[in-house]
């Protein structure tokens, strides 16, 4: 640390007494996210009120100290990691949740946990749809920074679709309000949506006004088996053509299912071992759900080989357990999982699955795939053993090929995780030089000293050259 | 025109033969929008294919020539007017519409007309909800530039909520794709949403991928009379509290209704002359609509003094005619209508109406108000005679006071029209200096030569010092 940075840190301690930590445990905890690469900050600021952020940024901007905001650290891409040291800005303390049930608007601190908002909204008959799989841990600030998705996007959209207003601080410590808790707002340039998904590179959000919906009265869940991925994904396309409007539409390929069946020693659909699976949720009024269910079962009678319905919440939970088992059991194949979150047009999903099978043969590594087939958002995994340099090399080559295929199919390299560090190598596949230059010019305009989450999105980074740390994180299932 | 600009124009003519016009009629047509201030361009470029835009911008950027994109010119704020001369870029020729009924995505040219997309979507059982009142004329590019709203926002949101991907050209003529026709996309900074609502100041959109919804099977319309604005707006708040989810919820104050009743010589609700009115649409499956209708009528029995239902499309059209008559009849009060599109929190609407009545007394000018009460988005009008300098001065003072009141109530100065020229004087009421500087830094980053729609949003402009032209525009009803 330079003398100037040390002075700035001393000044920070004076201004935010009891909120600045430099001990090893605090710095290690703030050094990682779910990508599990560790880069320790010089200090961790545990924010206790929004204005702390302004104080920290004012100093940081003056002394050109990197600042990396973080929530729960569940980012899959390294976006919450203080790559260039400096100060980690821990926003978990800003965890307030207030709900206006008339306006159907929640005002939340950046550190409020997604599942907490959901349960408080439900208690009032309301509904906050975005549901990233780590929702019991993730903060809403983190969800906003990454524009998080989840399973209900097919009907309800992503985090962005629920953000009305953001409050926070610009790089120089000036406070901002972009958008307000209103249903319509078109005054000036829309920096609100620019900040959403910007992974803490443009400003620091301290609170948000979020739109809530009336809670659906009823939900129904069904699970359908198909002979092949092709027939399952053909059914997905036909389903939309026929006007169905499911609230969840999840897909599991035969590799994922086979893996779970070997791992548990149980066949999911008796007599149909290693099927490809669709898991479907319908919601609405009881009458609507009844009508939708009938239409769906009639439709599926033409194409699925077996099905199972949940007639209670507990039975539905059992069906969702199948999805989770598939995800967990993959670690019986190898110790390391590359989890990509690519998106392709709906009718190109079958082609993408064919490509994952071709890739499997080519690189000799398993490529189990599941995900949000109603959005074209598939989690393609490549499983490999970290200690094997050959496997790591093959996995790396495989991912690059996969990403190029996705772009060639008219898709995008990330649908809900963001870029962070992990996806930097693929940015030039997705975006032209002019597009990247335009993005970077905006970054420089809002953060001229380059202090906000430096090293992310834009700068070259080879994720493969860094060794992940072995650490148990709260959301680890195994 | 300078010699350099003349050379650039000659070069443009060679590169875009038959698409560059400098005759008086073309320049006049491109000199105005619905604000009716006229600023003639040096030339009009009638774009026939997207790449024309790149050609024009490359030249314009090199020679620092102002470029003002326009669609139908129905903007209410002057955002489509070439204030600083230069080239008007007429995008109406890019009017293609393609619909993928499976993915529920429309790909449209910037010049495609909103109502055309709606009718083509409906023919396929689909639905494009944004419905600005000028939808028979407005282009989708213009809707995107202004993030247009309309009546169905209360349930279905605004234009932004339907934009998946944008294609177009940056200020220097480089092509861009921001977003793709996919349901999820989080790669890089979100310049797509930054462009939406930026009124042509950051880049020129040539085509867009728009999300479509399944078309609601059934609609129902009802009209309710209230003793006062306060009781009507109290009902609006209570309605949401009770969990109703109307697809339209329009409000008319007693000034608007009284004006229509005097103008037509007919009372809208027999025995309840000069009522305040709510116009409500419900939509969904027939079963849902039936259930909603019953709940709504039960609810309204407690607070409305009279009601009327539409049992057919034609009957519904008759109810909507009431809304249109109110709007048109205002011109019987005075020749000039200031139409503001402010938004306040739902529970503050009654207070805003009280303020419009206070203002009416204070300035001695009528302040009839109607609008989208489900969004808190009210069109407050001040009616005055243009030839009277006293009235104009009073109207100007009144609007400034109104805007300050709106901001004080936690609202926004514009909910669906945008800033353009007309709202520039109120920008500093809404946004802090730091927020405005952040917006302007983004503008400068993406348009360093300042050629795109110069003079709008950021530069001082006193709309009152300019005389509107008397011209008949396609959407004029009187």
TrEMBL record, chains A, B:
Coiled coil: none annotated. It comes from Coraliomargarita sinensis. GO terms for molecular function: FAD binding; oxidoreductase activity. PANTHER family: GLYCOLATE OXIDASE SUBUNIT GLCD. This is FAD-binding oxidoreductase. Its cofactor is FAD. Residues 37-215 form the FAD-binding PCMH-type domain. Keywords: FAD, Flavoprotein, Oxidoreductase. InterPro entries: FAD-bd_oxidored_4_C, FAD-bd_PCMH, FAD-bd_PCMH-like_sf, FAD-bd_PCMH_sub2, FAD-linked_Oxase-like_C, FAD-linked_OxidoTrans_Type4, Oxid_FAD_bind_N, Vanillyl_alc_oxidase_C-sub2. Belongs to the FAD-binding oxidoreductase/transferase type 4 family. The keyword Flavoprotein applies.
């Amino acid at each position: 640390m330079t003398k100037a940075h040390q002075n700035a840190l001393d000044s920070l301690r004076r201004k935010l007494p009891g909120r600045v930590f430099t001990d090893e445990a605090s710095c290690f905890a703030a050094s990682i996210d779910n990508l599990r690469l560790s880069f320790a900050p010089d200090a961790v600021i545990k924010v206790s009120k929004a204005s702390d952020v302004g104080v920290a940024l004012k100093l940081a901007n003056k002394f050109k100290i990197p600042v990396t905001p973080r929530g729960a650290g569940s980012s899959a891409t390294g976006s919450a990691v203080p790559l260039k040291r400096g100060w980690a800005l821990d926003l978990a303390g800003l965890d307030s949740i207030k709900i206006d049930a008339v306006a159907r608007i929640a005002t939340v601190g950046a550190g409020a946990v997604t599942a907490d908002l959901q349960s408080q909204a439900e208690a009032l008959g309301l509904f906050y749809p975005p549901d990233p799989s780590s929702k019991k841990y993730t903060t809403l600030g983190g969800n906003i920074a990454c524009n998080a998705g989840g399973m209900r996007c097919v009907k309800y959209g992503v985090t962005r679709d629920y953000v009305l207003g953001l409050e926070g601080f610009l790089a120089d410590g000036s406070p901002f309000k972009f958008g307000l808790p209103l249903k319509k707002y078109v005054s000036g340039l829309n920096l609100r949506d620019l900040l959403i998904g910007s992974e803490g590179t443009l400003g620091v959000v301290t609170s948000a006004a979020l739109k809530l919906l009336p809670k659906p009265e009823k939900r129904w869940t069904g699970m359908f088996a198909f002979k092949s991925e092709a027939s399952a994904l053909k059914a997905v396309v036909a389903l939309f053509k026929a006007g169905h409007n499911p609230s969840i539409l999840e897909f599991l390929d035969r590799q994922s299912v086979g893996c779970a069946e070997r791992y548990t020693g149980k066949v999911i659909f008796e007599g149909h071992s290693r099927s490809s699976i669709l898991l479907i949720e319908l919601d609405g009024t009881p009458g609507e759900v009844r009508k939708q269910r009938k239409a769906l079962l009639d439709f599926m009678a033409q194409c699925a080989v077996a099905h199972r319905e949940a007639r209670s919440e507990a039975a539905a939970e059992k069906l969702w357990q199948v999805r989770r088992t598939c995800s967990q059991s993959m670690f019986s194949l190898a110790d390391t999982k590359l989890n990509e979150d690519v998106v392709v047009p709906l009718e190109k999903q079958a082609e993408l699955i064919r490509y994952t099978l071709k890739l499997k043969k080519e690189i000799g590594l398993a490529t189990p795939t599941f995900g949000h087939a109603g959005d074209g958002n598939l989690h393609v995994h490549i499983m490999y053993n970290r200690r094997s340099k050959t496997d790591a090399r093959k996995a790396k080559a495989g991912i690059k090929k996969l990403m190029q295929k996705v772009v060639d199919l008219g898709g995008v390299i990330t649908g809900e995780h963001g870029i962070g560090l992990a996806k930097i190598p693929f940015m030039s596949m997705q975006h032209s030089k002019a597009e990247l230059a335009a993005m970077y010019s905006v970054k420089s305009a809002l953060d001229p000293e380059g202090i906000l989450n430096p090293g992310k999105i834009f700068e070259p980074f080879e994720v493969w050259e860094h060794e992940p740390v072995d650490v148990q994180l709260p959301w680890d299932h195994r």
